[in-house]
Write a structure and sequence with these properties.
about 300 residues; 2 domains; three-stranded antiparallel sheet; Alpha-Beta Plaits
Length: about 300
């Protein structure tokens, strides 16, 4: 769904829409709901509720999946309960499923005398929606203030750290070795996948951040350089291993042979096609990894009350 469609759905449900996180939230029938699209056309409804007889309450929440025609599964995490809504074939049907799901959940909570609780402490009472970093929580104001204070200390500590570029390069290098090894194994199995690029990207980015102490745009640029180098080496190693397999050469000689052939332009059929396929898929996966890392930096230390 697009944001304007989520906003329309929120209005139909009598709830609110947060444009910054693209979530639907608010009270319905006295209970606080959080509705998120976690993947394309995949919606989850989260509540934080309890009742005096906690064990019986848990079984009632679980039973609702079987009783409702629009709920697919349930996930309980201490004080929060998340339902997965069945996918609709069209956007209209998906909206109808979500509305029916909210109705089914609200009716159960009212009928069985559930009450809202803080998703952080389990304390009964008024709750709201809060954002901490890139995560959303249903909690009360006291819990938010405690978590926000701790989060601010951690964020200030991170921001005060000086980026160690030299150690970051060492970390990116080690990450490239690890991620490159995984990508090479996948290539030797005959696959070209963005997953290998994602793994390579994560290894390099995390390697830089762990040893460099923080990840900045400079770290992203250095990571890209290491990714390109790793892609070239993985491609050359893959062909070198194939030469060893087909012709029985020593690996060192095979590696030298494929490098000389590449420089002379006298390469095997589909050599460049396979290289650009590897580059393209790896670029997609690595791009996701870097984008995710930069997104984390943007929301690091972010604390706010949404409602």
């Amino acid at each position: 769904m697009k944001d304007f469609e989520r906003h329309q759905l929120a209005t139909e449900l009598g709830l609110q829409f947060d444009p910054e996180t693209s979530v639907i939230f608010g009270e319905n029938s006295g209970y606080f709901f959080l509705i998120q699209e976690t993947d394309k056309n995949v919606f989850r409804i989260t509540i934080s509720v309890s009742r005096d007889d906690e064990d019986y309450g848990a079984s009632e929440l679980q039973q609702l999946v079987s009783d409702s025609s629009v709920l697919k599964s349930i996930e309980r995490n201490q004080y929060t309960t998340t339902y997965l809504v069945k996918t609709g074939m069209t956007k209209k049907k998906m909206s109808e499923n979500i509305q029916q799901a909210v109705t089914d959940i609200a009716q159960l909570l009212q009928t069985k005398d559930f009450h809202n609780i803080c998703g952080f402490t389990g304390q009964a009472g008024e709750v709201g929606l809060y954002q901490i970093d890139d995560s959303l929580f249903i909690m009360n104001e006291d819990s938010f203030q405690q978590v926000a204070a701790q989060q601010k200390l951690e964020a200030d500590s991170y921001k005060s750290q000086k980026e160690n570029v030299v150690m970051g390069i060492v970390g990116a290098f080690l990450g490239a070795i690890l991620g490159g090894a995984v990508a090479l194994v996948i290539a030797r199995l005959g696959y070209v996948s963005y997953i290998s690029g994602f793994v390579l990207g994560v290894c390099i980015v995390k390697g830089y951040e762990l040893l460099g102490r923080k990840f900045t745009k400079k770290g992203a640029l250095i990571s890209v350089v290491f990714m390109l180098l790793a892609i070239v080496l993985v491609h050359q190693f893959d062909y070198a291993f194939e030469i060893v397999k087909q012709l029985g050469y020593d690996f060192t000689d095979a590696f030298a042979l494929i490098n000389e052939a590449a420089l002379a332009g006298d390469v095997p059929e589909n050599y460049f096609f396979n290289f650009f396929m590897l580059l393209g898929f790896t670029g997609i996966g690595a791009g996701v990894a870097i984008s995710s890392a930069m997104s984390v930096q943007k929301t690091r230390g972010l604390v706010r009350k949404i409602a």
